[in-house]
Design brief:
By secondary structure, the chain is an alpha+beta fold. 34% of the residues lie in helices and 18% in strands. The protein folds into 2 domains: 102 residues, no CATH class; 261 residues, no CATH class. It is built from 14 helices and 10 strands. A hairpin with a 2-residue loop joins strand 8 and strand 9. Its cofactor is Mn(2+).
């Protein structure tokens, strides 16, 4: 498991927090002038040349880049968010009486902030831009309903076999003699989002500590995948929701940020740019002799078909009677073991990509409670904290379904 996954195994519907948060606050706008005095000098020069409007746009964009995600230890974007015992600090109206307010609660949520402190560089610091638990339940149902490319019941036949008890998941014993996938209709893989997704899976070295070399062809494959998913109604609904919440001003801005947060490289080792959110979550990695990440059903099926993945058992099977379903599972990948994995089964690439993106933006470092077809499910995401992009924005470290 990665550092973001260690010890996170609460029951799917118990909503028990893993008790961990990996996030840091963005610097305040007031501090930007002290940190960047050259910008003020540049402003005078631009004013004299009639370019102040362009400068203001540049400066505003630069300051907003670090303000996209709701930090667990900040009230930015969380005012009036319902109380949850999972959160390390709170931003609801009663937090003062509990002495549990985040330290910047007065700055973002006190009465009068709506009119007296609206800055263009703080798009979503106020209560109507916060993403509530109720809104997450609603938008996740919308995304679930818009997954038109998902597998139909006769497209996939899985054979879960042995259900492992909690004390069996660490035994590394193959308790299921047959493959997990008895049948998959591979015509699914000819759909544009599937085809472009699959082309990405062989672009990575699975062992951390080895620098990833990204070719021009691989960069183009990333662009094609993003373009294909953004054509889907599911991702358009996700963008519309985030746009309404002032996370993004345009679809192009959203697309560019998806590329950075998911495909931007960072180091899980000793400085080599050896990992990304996409590689970890969808393709899978091997770190310290264990499988890390690897939460995608398509990747699992393709490697199992090649004889490189050996399915051992499952510890959870979701309540859905259609796809997507959820499975918690144990398996070996070319000799490396995954003790507790989880994956959506039968969803389209855009569904998984969109759901994880929603939770990363709305609840980074915290459990993200969703509703899919009337059933509750929780997603855990973590931000990568050792490096950033775009003036303090965070890469995705991991994202996965919380399984028992």
């Amino acid at each position: 498991m990665s550092s973001g996954e260690v010890g996170v195994q609460p029951a799917l519907r118990s909503w028990v927090s893993p008790g961990s948060s990996l996030s840091s606050r963005d610097p305040h706008i007031a501090g930007r002038a002290q940190q960047h005095p050259h910008r003020c000098q540049r402003a005078e020069m631009l004013l004299s040349t009639g370019m102040m409007k362009a400068f203001i746009l540049f400066l505003g964009v630069g300051m907003t880049l670090g303000s996209l995600y709701t930090d667990p230890d900040s009230c930015r974007g969380r005012c009036d968010e319902p109380y949850s015992h999972e959160d390390e600090c709170h931003c609801d109206a009663d937090c003062r009486s509990r002495n549990s307010c985040c330290r910047d609660y007065p700055e973002h949520c006190r009465e009068g902030e709506e009119t007296t402190h609206r800055h263009t560089a703080e798009h979503f610091s106020h209560s109507h831009d916060a993403i509530s638990d109720k809104e997450l339940l609603h938008v996740s149902e919308q995304l679930y309903g818009a997954d038109y490319n998902k597998a139909q019941p006769n497209d996939i036949n899985i054979n879960p076999q042995h259900r492992a008890d909690p004390d069996q998941t660490g035994l590394q014993e193959d308790l299921s003699p047959e493959p997990l996938y008895a049948y998959v209709n591979e015509k699914l893989f000819s759909k544009p989002t599937y085809a472009s997704f699959i082309r990405l899976l062989d672009n990575y070295q699975r062992a951390t500590g080895h620098e990833e070399e990204v070719t021009a062809e691989e960069l183009q494959e990333q662009n094609i995948f993003l373009q294909e998913v953004m054509k889907t109604e599911l991702m358009k609904k996700l963008y519309a929701f985030l746009h309404k919440k002032n996370r993004y001003g345009s679809e192009e801005e959203f697309l560019q940020d998806l590329k950075e947060m998911w495909f931007g490289l960072y180091s899980r080792g000793d400085g080599e740019k050896d990992s990304s959110g996409f590689e970890h979550v969808f393709s899978g990695e091997v770190k310290k002799g264990k499988v890390s990440g690897f939460h995608n059903w398509i990747r699992f099926y393709l490697l199992e078909k090649q004889g490189l993945v050996n399915y051992y058992s499952h510890n959870f099977d979701g309540p859905w009677d259609t796809y997507p379903d959820v499975l918690g599972l144990q398996f070996s990948w070319d000799g490396f073991y995954k003790e507790v994995g989880s994956a959506f089964i039968g969803c389209s690439p855009e569904f998984e990509f969109g759901i994880y993106t929603l939770c990363f933006i709305a609840r980074p470092g915290r459990e993200c409670h969703l509703s899919l077809g009337g059933h509750g499910v929780s997603i855990q995401t973590y931000t990568w904290t050792k490096s950033t992009y775009g003036h303090g924005k965070k890469y995705i470290a991991t994202a996965y379904i919380i399984s028992p």
